[in-house]
Amino acid sequence: MNFEIRYAVHPEDMKSYDTTRIRKEFLIEKVMIPGEVTMVYSFYDRYIVGGIVPTNAPIKLEAHDELKAAYFLERREMGIVNVGGDAKIVADGTEYILKYKEALYLGRGIKDVVFESADASKPAHLYMNSAPAHKELPSRHVTLADANVLQLGSLETSNERQINQLLVKEVVETCQLQMGMTELKPGSVWNTMPSHTHNRRMEAYFYFEVPQRQAVCHFMGDPDETRHIWMKNEEAVLSPSWSIHSAAGTSNYIFIWGMAGENLDYTDMDIRQADELR
Fold first, then answer.
1. Rounded average pLDDT over 95-101
2. What is the DSSP string of 167-200?
3. Fewer Cβ in 10 A, N or C end of the chain?
4. Is 141 annotated as a binding residue?
5. Residue 244: what pLDDT?
6. Domain limits of the chain?
């Protein structure tokens, strides 16, 4: 397991960061490593972002020493979205088959979790988010047919997109974790416009299906003091509650958003219109 800790950043401090420091604090470049588990533990709401890529052998979910837990989900819940080949996940004896773009919620208290790829030559790429949980809740496999789907934006404003709300309160009960997937339509490149902040929740983005030699420019920071990070395929970024989180790509792409914090209200946003950003 590759385990890293990221500390919280004050918005006033970020004003002095150069490109290298911004990328060090917020960008997660190596999410999917064949045959390994990668986790970044953020001090934003104790959120964990990571990737699991089983290849020739199954991978068992272990609790890193930093968690001071007997097993990973002792005090946590977890959301998983598969962005690769078919996966088999066995959680306390219950087997789930996760296909491309399908999600799985695992509740607090599950002791044994094992990940396996159906075909080692086409391994599963399992993107995971985890947050502290206050009670046990049932696990659930969520397909795109189960998702709460929103159609937003337009081709005229280059942000026509489909939002698939996968792990939200309208679909599955969680303690504080929310996850979903936004797909940009061909010809559209902007996500999350108008941009917003939400002091009640932090967020993380994971970009995938970014074509080779293309990139996504992720915008973040205080709305009056914005910064950007150039990102490639299968990279993730942490977004503090005080930061906007928006992007434009050199082609269309897909991203997974995950959130945790004080409430489960998806519409809890403090909107900043494009002409108000600095």
1. 98
2. ESTTTS--SS-EEEEEEEPTT--EESSSEEE-TT
3. C
4. no
5. 96
6. 2-276
